Each structure stands twice: as structure tokens, then as C-alpha cells.
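Example 3.2
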Amino acid sequence: MKRSDRLYSLIEILKDGKLHRAEDMARDLGVSIRTIYRDMDTLAASGVPVEGERGIGYSARAAITLPPLNLTETELEALHLGLAAVGNGVDGELQEAAKTLSAKIDAVLPEDRHGAPASFGFAVYPFADAAYGFRHLTSLRSAIRNRQKLRLTMQDQSLRDVRPLKLDYWGRVWTCLVWCDTTDGFATLRADQIEQVTVLPGLFVDEPGKRLEDYSA
């Protein structure tokens, strides 16, 4: 069972308001008690009103419960762009609500983010930096679809001629996997660290060793 599915299953179990032992939930979900403890900490950190403690049991009383949603990457991008705008454009209650909502979304995203950098700090990554990276996503996505070579100017003013292959989302941080002609190798570039995107003439074709499937292999 995926972690996101397990977290939702735990919410379904807890929302009846009754006390549930970690041992029973672990048995029902086929995981260890330690995993249940970690999941309880994750739910609490994400704003789910979990009550209880280890060795006694847990319950939850949510004021509003939404059904599970399946979002496309574009919908997720739009959602976080809106949260970024609210988080930076207003003060007080709405700003705090934007931050906690974004943390809840991050907490239930799938775990299978191959090679996710540990230093990104998903739950505390600044909204302003996230919004800064959104401005290039349309150009990057279009280049991936059209197999268009790009010249990227990075924040350190270095230039990279790249073949964009894939966009990934890491919790308010978007990255682009590229084959970099400048360094002659694969690279994962953060969208918020790209200053300028320039479309180069000509399209790229699949070449052995430079394709997405070669990186995955």
C-alpha cells in the first residue's frame, strides 16, 4: 500500500471519534507499529486533529473532511501557485492557512520520488522561491513535448544548453531532468534557480545514452 493511501486509510479509521490502538491499526494495514507511530506524527504535523498518544490509542475529530482527489501535475501546479500568492500577498489568518494547507498536501504526496534531494526541506520551503520557479514551467513543459533544445541562464549566470526530458514535483519545488550538452551528462535543475529560458533553433532527436529511458535505467 502506498503511503498516501495508508494515511487516508488511517484518517478513515480515526474519524469515527473512537479510540484506536496502534497495534490494531498496524495489523489491519499490514505494517509495523513503528510505522503507525510515524504516520500519526505525519498526520498531526499536517494539521489533522489527531488526539492520543503511544501506548494508549488515537482518535481524530475533523471539522471538514474532503473525499480523495486525483490531481494532474498541471492542477497541482495551479494549486500551489495560488497558495504561493496567498502566502506572500496577505498577512495573518489566510497566510497561515495557505502554509498549513500546503503542508497537508505535501504530507500525502506519493513516496516514490526517486532520488529526491534530502536538503530541499519540503514542508518549510519558502513560498516566494516556489512562485519564482513557476514562471518557467510552461516553457519547460512545451519544450519537453516539442523536443526543443533550450539555453538556460542559471542564477549564478552560468549557461547550459539542454534537452529537457521530464518535470518532477518535490513539494513546492519543481525540477527539470535534462540532458546537458554543456556538461555532456544528465542533470536535475531546480526551476526556481533558472533566470532565463531561451529556445534554440532546431529540435533534438533520441540518441542512445541521452534519453529519459537511459537515465531511468
